[in-house]
From TrEMBL:
Residues 1-19 form the signal peptide. Pfam families: SIMPL. It comes from Albidovulum litorale. The lineage of its organism: Bacteria, Pseudomonadati, Pseudomonadota, Alphaproteobacteria, Rhodobacterales. This is SIMPL domain-containing protein. InterPro entries: 26kDa_periplasmic_antigen (IPR052022), SIMPL/DUF541 (IPR007497). Keywords: Signal. It comes from the Bacteria.
């Protein structure tokens, strides 16, 4: 009787576990969607790097040059809201040549001020770059293109991702000789951020007389989705 009671308890405990493991058969697929579009804005990371015998002289020269660069940006019709300081550094410059008994020697100071600029008129990008360089900008960290309002493009990329997932699920079901049932879940990857913008091969040129030539190309925005389908009986 004691052994029978123990066996009954084991069955009672194991029953819910077995039931939890016998869910519906499913097919899980991941869909990808991409949308290409002509950009309507550019982001430029530029700045000024200066050197000086003292920290004060290096920073002073840098501040003067950056002020001239910002004034030129405003003269090029760049609004205040589209100009943002993105990096500011000041530090010693060392001589590691061993002329100081093997110890690094400070030979001057280096100041750097980086500014991120949004250019809403693509035809003006070349002129903006040419203008700021003439005013003292000597550092260019990057140039990228994008859409001022990319919500509709990203929504379309998501629709294409769902259609891609549905196509894959139908193909797998056909190959396996089963039928698709209802959708059990739809999810984007954790921490998902729409991909883009990425430069594409096709390019046109936004260029004025004597301006820096700039290839605007296309931007590519992408989305990803995971869908779980039930396999119909």
């Amino acid at each position: 009787m004691r052994l029978f009671s123990i066996f009954t308890v084991i069955l009672a405990l194991s029953g819910p576990v077995l039931a939890a493991e016998t869910g519906p058969a499913t097919i899980t697929v991941t869909g990808e969607g991409q949308v290409e579009a002509a950009p309507d804005m550019a982001m430029v990371s530029l700045g000024v790097t200066t050197e000086g015998d003292t920290a004060s002289s290096a920073l002073g020269a840098n501040s003067e040059a950056v002020a001239a660069v910002i004034a030129r940006l405003k003269a090029e019709a760049i609004e205040d809201r589209d100009i943002q300081t993105s990096g500011l550094s000041l530090g010693p410059r060392y001589d590691y040549g061993g002329s100081n008994g093997g110890q690094p020697k400070i030979t001057g100071y280096l100041a750097m001020n980086m500014v991120t600029v949004r250019v809403r008129d693509l035809a003006a990008v070349g002129g903006v770059l040419d203008g700021v360089v003439s005013e003292g900008a000597n550092t260019l960290n990057g140039l990228s293109f994008g859409l001022e309002d990319d919500a509709s493009a990203i929504d379309e990329a998501r629709r294409r991702a769902v259609a891609d997932a549905a196509h894959k699920a139908a193909l797998y079901a056909e190959a396996a000789g089963v039928k698709l049932g209802r959708v059990l879940s739809i999810s984007e990857p954790a921490g998902f951020q729409p991909r883009g913008p990425v430069m594409m091969a096709e390019a046109s040129f936004a260029k004025g007389a004597a301006d820096v030539p700039v290839a605007t190309g296309e931007v590519n925005l992408g989305a990803s989705v995971s869908i779980v389908y039930e396999i119909a009986e």
